[in-house]
Amino acid sequence: MPLDYGLIGVESAPHERSWTSSDTLLYALGVGAGTDELAFTTENSTGIRQRVLPTFAVLAAQAPTGRRLGDFDPAMLVHAEQAFELHRELPPAGRVRTTSTVTGIYDKGSGALVVIEARAADAESGEPLITSRSSVFIRGEGGFGGDRGPRDEWAEPGRPPDHTVTYETRHDQALLYRLSGDRNPLHSDPVFAARAGFPRPILHGLCTYGITGRALLHAVAGSDPARFAAMSGRFSKPVFPGETLTVSIWVDGLTASFRTAKQDGTVVIDRGRAAFRPA
CA 106, CA 109: separation in Å to the nearest integer? Predict the structure, then answer.
């Protein structure tokens, strides 16, 4: 069976998800936060209240679409893009009710791009909390004569970055991040990684995304997650645990463009955009 185009526009049944203080602390450690970010890595430090890294929103809003995308080799699927909007600051512990919708299946020739939107509301009050949009690219499923999808006109600003933030990833970073829910052996099993064509396990794309979100939070939002409104980016190359990442940030008022690259200049998150609220 090819991809199920009948999924487009069909909203899933509501899916409930909850998280605890321990979950958000573990996530922060998984994306590299440490002793200089105690508001995100501890819950009982003197004079510091626990807060949540904004990129945890992507995990909190995850929900099944309710139907299979189609019959294809899962090894052909890669995470292509990720975006989210925060309608208010995330609590250290919470519960949401989420619906998801396939909003488009686009023909990219060598493959198909599937775009999924999830909307998460507070399970008690019904107040909107997160809107998340993710895209997956499925190799070999293109060429069906469909719409190629909207073009992204992102361009690097013609000036040096306003901020550059560099973080070293740990050699065991993927082993820590996987405890937040993504147990894909591509990120932990050397044999599985070799079957996928990699010399060793790669870092989760959403871990790189979370590391990038930390850089944006501290450089542009004054480390205040209440000011962090939105973030989007396209995954362009894999990262291996232990590599060093540099986030280049161009600020324009309450918005920013960004790009994340390795030490050798290889771009791993491209076409980045973020939005912030006033201080």
Answer: 9
How many other β-carbons are positioned within 10 Å of the β-carbon of residue 169?
Answer: 21
* pTM metric for this prediction: 0.94
User: Are residues 233 and 270 in contact, defined by beta-carbon separation less than 8 angstroms?
Assistant: yes
Phi, psi of 43 (to 5 degrees): -120, 0
Structure-block tokens of residue 3? 């991809």
Number of alpha carbons in the 13 Å side-chain half-sphere of residue 46: 0
Structure-block tokens of residue 44:
């009982």
Q: What is the Cα 156 distance to its own chain's centre?
A: 21
Integer CA distances (angstroms), 157 to 24, 56, 162, 251, in order = 34, 28, 10, 10
Q: Which amino acid is at 122?
A: D
> 130 in helix, strand or coil?
strand
Where helices occur in the chain by DSSP H, the ranges are 21-30, 38-41, 56-60, 173-177, 190-195, 205-220
Confidence of residue 191 (pLDDT cuts 50, 70, 90): very high
Backbone angles phi, psi at 169, to 5 degrees: -90, 155
State whether residue 96 is helix, strand or coil: strand
Alpha-helical runs (H) found in 87-239: 173-177, 190-195, 205-220
**pLDDT tens column, 97-138:** 999 999 999 999 999 999 999 999 999 999 999 999 999 999
Catalytic residues: 182, 187
Query: Which residues make beta-bridge pairs with 251?
Result: 256
